[in-house]
Write a structure and sequence with these properties.
eight-stranded mixed beta sheet, alpha/beta, Aminopeptidase, about 15% strand, 13 helices, 2 domains, about 35% helix, about 425 residues
Length: about 425
């Protein structure tokens, strides 16, 4: 059975979550899951990808390889081992990544929806990436050319390049709403009464790199110098940016490198400008994997002033997902439920506007065939269960159009506050992969 390694090893390695990110020359390697390897891993600070059939798979740079070899660990080179058939451009035409979207395919399909439903859909270019790829948003409304003051709902995907399923879920929402508008009275009601914005691919450069070069890439493609590439876009937002070096890293080699400053990246600035220019009442940003629903705060274990609202709505989203396929997405505050993060999308949108803001980590938890590599045939079922939650959130936003602004935390007072370390019901802290 395949098990995704950060969940499994966080317990075996005393809760350690390893965060070194691969520079441009990274490759996939593996080590046997033996007692000697488990003992050596914490000191190596590697980017652990998965565990499968008794082997631990690692995204390794040249420096990582040198450290492994110095310890004389039995290394094996495994390019393509975890994503057969998805390693590069298709031969003889067709999509290089099957049922998933490349950036070009997404562009084509978004504009096709606009052309097919001109009275309901309009594509906007929010900005361009470092490598000059457009960052697209699909706007859905009964009059998408005009601002009518209707409650806005925002759905984001693909902050992290290797999380391909996070592109498909928000894109398929737009497709479903448009295709069913004329025949489903409830969908017509929701679209007519709201202003729905969908940004399926926040990180087009990183995503393109996973298609063309290296499937396990996480960050954008910022050249940080010294052979290190990439900023973690979900550590680059402006609220509590750089609050500490646990929830993000100042090291350009890290998987969670936060960048040189808040909103240093054009991709996060594109999202920022969209949010500042609209009247959004709720937001979901999609990631993978862990099968959880997270809400602020992520940068601290303290609750927000609206914890009861966020908890209740999160539980309702979870219940609607579970009712479709029986899959349970646990819901809770990010800093308690997963691990501490700072400079994240949902902390920033919530602190700025007070709108309910959620990160949904899509399936699986750690089961076979999952991790960052959901099978193509799983896309439809994952979308269907999340559709129920998205529909509910749109309806909720129509009924609650004016978010209550959160009173901003005084970060200096939090620095002086005692650290609170909640525990799960069994009295044990849990950690998951830093996919968020």
């Amino acid at each position: 059975m395949k098990k995704i390694i950060p969940v499994l090893l966080s317990l075996a390695l005393g809760g350690s979550t390893l965060s070194a990110q691969s520079p441009q020359d990274s490759i996939l390697v593996s080590l046997p899951r033996t007692a000697d390897v488990l003992q050596a891993l914490p000191a190596l600070a590697l980017d652990l990808v998965a565990e499968w059939e008794g082997r631990i798979y690692i995204s390794a740079s040249a420096a990582d390889l040198a450290r492994i070899e110095r310890l004389r660990l039995p290394l094996r080179y495994d390019a393509g081992a975890l994503a057969p058939g998805l390693a590069g451009p298709a031969v003889g035409g067709g999509s290089p990544i099957g049922a998933y979207h490349t950036h070009l395919e997404l562009e084509t399909d978004l504009f096709a929806l606009e052309k097919a439903y001109p009275q309901l859909a309009k594509v906007f270019t929010l900005g361009t990436s470092l490598e000059n790829r457009p960052i697209y948003a699909l706007r859905l409304s009964d009059n998408p050319q005009t601002d009518e003051g209707e409650p806005g709902v925002l759905f984001l995907g693909c902050h992290h390049a290797r999380e391909w399923i996070s592109v498909e879920v928000p894109f398929l929402l737009g497709k479903h709403l448009l295709e069913n508008y004329a025949t489903d009275p409830e969908i017509k009601r929701l679209v007519d009464a709201s202003d729905i914005w969908i940004v399926p691919m926040v990180n087009p450069d990183g995503h393109n790199y996973t298609v063309q070069v290296y499937r396990y890439w996480r960050k954008n493609r910022r050249d940080n110098g010294g052979g290190e590439y990439g900023v973690d876009l979900n550590r680059n937002y402006g609220y509590a940016w750089g609050y500490d070096n646990s929830g993000s890293s100042p090291n350009p080699a890290s998987a969670v490198y936060r960048g040189s400053s808040a909103f240093s990246e054009p991709e996060t600035r594109a999202v920022r400008n969209l949010v500042l220019g609209r009247d959004f009442g709720a937001m979901i940003t999609y990631h993978s994997f862990s099968q959880v629903i997270l809400y602020p705060w992520g940068f601290t274990k303290l609750p927000t002033a609206q914890d009861a609202l966020l908890r209740d709505l999160g539980d309702r989203l979870s219940a609607r997902i579970a009712a479709v396929n029986g899959r349970v997405y646990q819901s809770g505050p990010a800093g308690i439920s997963l691990y501490l993060t700072n400079g994240t999308t949902d902390d920033w949108t919530f602190a700025l506007t007070g709108m309910p803001s959620y990160t949904i980590e899509l399936p699986p938890i750690d089961q076979a065939g999952g991790g960052f590599f959901n099978a193509e045939e799983d896309i439809a079922s994952i979308f269907r269960e999340n559709l129920a939650a998205m529909i509910h959130l749109i309806g909720w936003t129509i009924e609650h159009p004016r978010p209550i602004p959160e009173s901003p935390f005084d970060l200096r007072s939090l620095l002086r506050a005692p650290r609170i370390v909640p525990r799960d019901p069994a009295g044990q802290r849990t950690e998951r992969d830093r996919s968020r």
